[in-house]
């Protein structure tokens, strides 16, 4: 246990000096294995883990989903989505903020990263809301909380990583994320309407014009249909997630060329971004497995499970403690880093308590996303403040009712697992 304590300190120090979490975990895990079983066996474990990880077929879905997102976003999809949603609901009080939520749902399905989605909306939706005289608190809060949709709404890269780390069906995770994602979007919209009608933060927009709304939607509807088709073939058992991702890339390429929003000059950067992101994610997964191997050799996981079994605490009390820890981690870290650090211990504990792995995955991802908008160090709030120029304190004050709403949604997902599980339970075939 002394060696474990030393390595945890080493891991913390490496992360404090801003070493990427993947390398920090890899170094700590390899050093721990070397102490535990010797240098040569540790290097053999290192080699085996990297070969086994990179040879996993399901990882093919990661670069393909990222490439699909890059191809679709190359054509100014964020701005088009905002304008389309604004044309349909912008005429009501708070309508532009609700339109921003709708655009955030679409962007979540494309980008899959919470902080990246927040940054994109802060540079496109926030100026639009300011132009229509929205209060800074509401505008930046909507941008920040809208970014949280990116981790639950499928096809989410975070859910893919959770599925790979825990060997859980990625297809079922995608389908399980649909209802919680829509619940969150509905909750955000409800808070916007309440704030709009109780304060002067959100003025009424321009009158509704059907022709304008239809014209504004013509470039966005094909993208929405493509995303629905990608999720639909998974739900119907027609294709695996990797095959659906390949279909999505082909569809995105065809759409980009047909709409003339994709040029050959932007194709190379899209591929390059997908490759760089994939290398980063696969490295995180591999290094997480190295650290998990070390925990297995030291019997930390087994000792933790024994302690849980002997504690006599109710399962939901232990889950509440896990959720609290993940909320705190979410204030400081990216969601992929949290998964790689927490799942080697948290997932076996959850399985020992007989929790469903798909439901637990949605609860975990939802929890770490709430941490991204929670003071004092919610990363999404920092991104929104940095991109908009609004003081951080104002952003957090605007986020308060949305944080309460997020906690209510999380509580409902925990209390009623069937909210998450009924749709995956209807899946056919190859989920």
TrEMBL record:
Membrane topology type: Multi-pass membrane protein
Domain of life: Bacteria
Annotated TRAP C4-dicarboxylate transport system permease DctM subunit domain residues: 8-419
Locations listed in the record: Cell inner membrane
Quaternary assembly: The complex comprises the extracytoplasmic solute receptor protein and the two transmembrane proteins.
Gene Ontology molecular function terms on file: transmembrane transporter activity
Name of the protein in question: TRAP transporter large permease protein
GO cellular component, one term: plasma membrane
Keywords: Cell inner membrane, Cell membrane, Membrane, Transmembrane, Transmembrane helix, Transport
Native source organism of the sequence: Acuticoccus sediminis
Similarity section: Belongs to the TRAP transporter large permease family.
InterPro entries (UniProt xref): DctM (IPR010656), TRAP_DctM (IPR004681)
Keyword Membrane: yes
The keyword Secreted is annotated on this UniProt entry: no
Principal localisation: membrane
Cited function: Part of the tripartite ATP-independent periplasmic (TRAP) transport system.
Transmembrane region(s): 50-69, 105-126, 138-162, 174-195, 216-238, 274-292, 312-329, 402-423
């Amino acid at each position: 246990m002394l060696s474990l304590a030393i390595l945890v300190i080493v891991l913390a120090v490496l992360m404090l000096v801003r070493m990427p979490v993947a390398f920090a975990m890899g170094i700590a895990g390899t050093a721990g294995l070397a102490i535990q079983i010797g240098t040569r066996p540790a290097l053999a474990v290192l080699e085996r883990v990297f070969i086994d990880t990179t040879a996993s077929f399901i990882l093919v879905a990661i670069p393909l989903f990222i490439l699909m997102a890059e191809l679709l976003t190359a054509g100014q999809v964020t701005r088009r989505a905002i304008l389309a949603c604004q044309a349909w609901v912008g005429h009501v009080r708070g309508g532009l903020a609700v339109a921003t939520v709708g655009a955030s749902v679409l962007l979540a399905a494309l980008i899959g990263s919470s902080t990246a989605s927040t940054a994109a909306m802060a540079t496109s939706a926030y100026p639009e809301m300011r132009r229509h005289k929205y209060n800074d608190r509401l505008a930046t809060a909507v941008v920040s909380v809208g970014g949280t949709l990116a981790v639950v709404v499928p096809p989410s890269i975070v859910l893919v990583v959770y599925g790979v780390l825990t060997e859980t069906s990625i297809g079922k995770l995608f389908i399980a994320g649909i209802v919680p994602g829509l619940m969150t979007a509905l909750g955000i919209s409800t808070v916007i309407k309440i704030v709009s009608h109780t304060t002067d933060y959100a003025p009424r927009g321009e009158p509704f014009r059907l022709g304008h709304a239809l014209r504004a939607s013509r470039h966005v509807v094909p993208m929405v249909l493509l995303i629905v088709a990608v999720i639909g073939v998974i739900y119907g058992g027609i294709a695996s997630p990797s095959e659906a991702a390949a279909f999505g890339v082909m569809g995105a390429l065809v759409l980009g060329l047909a709409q003339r929003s994709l040029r050959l000059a932007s194709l190379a950067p899209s591929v390059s971004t997908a490759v760089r992101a994939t290398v980063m994610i696969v490295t995180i997964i591999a290094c997480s497995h190295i650290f998990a191997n070390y925990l297995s050799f030291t019997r930390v996981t087994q000792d933790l499970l024994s302690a849980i079994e002997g504690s006599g605490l109710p399962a939901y009390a232990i889950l509440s403690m896990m959720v609290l820890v993940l909320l705190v981690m979410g204030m400081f870290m990216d969601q992929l880093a949290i998964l790689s650090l927490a799942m080697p211990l948290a997932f076996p504990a959850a399985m020992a308590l007989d929790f469903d792995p798909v439901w637990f995955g949605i609860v975990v991802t939802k929890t770490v996303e709430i941490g991204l908008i929670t003071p004092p160090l919610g990363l999404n709030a920092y991104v929104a403040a940095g991109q908009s120029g609004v003081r951080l304190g104002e952003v957090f004050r605007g986020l308060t009712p949305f944080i309460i709403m997020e906690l209510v949604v999380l509580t409902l997902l925990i209390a009623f697992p069937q909210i998450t599980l009924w749709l995956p339970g209807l899946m056919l075939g190859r989920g």
